[in-house]
TrEMBL record:
InterPro entries listed in its UniProt record: Aldose_1/G6P_1-epimerase, G6P_1-epimerase, Gal_mutarotase_sf_dom, GH-type_carb-bd
GO BP, sorted A to Z: carbohydrate metabolic process
Domain of life: Bacteria
UniProt organism field: Comamonas terrigena
Any one Gene Ontology molecular-function term assigned to this protein's record: carbohydrate binding
Lineage of the organism: Bacteria, Pseudomonadati, Pseudomonadota, Betaproteobacteria, Burkholderiales
EC number: 5.1.3.15
Catalytic activity: alpha-D-glucose 6-phosphate = beta-D-glucose 6-phosphate
SUPFAM superfamilies with a match to the protein in the record: Galactose mutarotase-like
Active-site residues, record numbering mapped to chain: H156, E258
Keywords from the UniProt entry: Isomerase
Family affiliation: Belongs to the glucose-6-phosphate 1-epimerase family.
GO cellular component: cytoplasm
Protein name as it appears in the record: Putative glucose-6-phosphate 1-epimerase
Name of the top EC class for this enzyme: isomerase
Amino acid sequence: MSEFPRAERMVWRGLACTRLGLPNGDSAVVSDFGAQVLSWEAQGQERLFLSPRAVLDGSAPIRGGIPVCFPQFNQRGPLPKHGLVRRTPWHYLGAEVQEGSISASWCWDAEPSLHADFPHGLRAVLQVQLTPAGLRVQLQATNTGSTALAFTGALHSYLAVHDAETARLQGLEGQAFWDAARGFVPAVQDGSVVLGEEVDRVYARSRAALQLHGRHGVLDIAQDGAWPETVVWNPGPALCAQLGDMAADSWRQMLCVEAALVNQPQALAPGASWQASQHFQVR
Ligand SMILES: O=P(O)(O)OC[C@H]1O[C@@H](O)[C@H](O)[C@@H](O)[C@@H]1O
């Protein structure tokens, strides 16, 4: 803890990271690998899930925290699942103190030669801002090449759940969705989302913040309109048992609530930029 907001470069569980800290004790740890937030502590509680079996040696995407899926969501295109940037180091740009808060940024650059299926110039910048009891993550994309491109993506936030029996996600009631775990059949959300069976749903974004209710209070989850969809994912016990980087009961400890761009790829003309953020606030 220190008197002022501060950013510290460090090695955290073997990974080059930046730790952001506030005078009230809140902190966030962000890895250069994937520009991935790995920990966010607010009001003395860890708010993100990081799998006890996460691979942290740079050989695979990290299971937990806030992976950045970009420039492709899931398997909706020819690139590796969830895109290129979650499996590679980003360049740390530095940190900036604002009144009562601190933010840090990372960038990732693609040249047309980077990947045969993505022959474009693209720059991604991720900014992570820590505020009292809050965390804002913003992704910016700029077409730095000479050809038009289109992308999909997500901030794949793994939120910590401390009591699977009573945890519930509110705020999606009445929203249209389809569930990849149930044959992609269009449906409308009835009531809260609870943990149990696998859910792999893509919802139309809700204008109002969602609320994750749990043992440690309520977490408000908001995303701006440039993320048109919200993905809610929990593998449930059967799929979780097949995931080598999850413990058998990890599905009971997390719920992914992802700010996403899935259904309609975003076009970017040469020189054009796009940006969108997701915001978490403990009540
Ligand atoms: O195991 P991965 O590649 O990190 O993906 C996890 C999940 O990510 C979600 O965003 C997808 O909707 C799921 O279909 C997918 O299984």
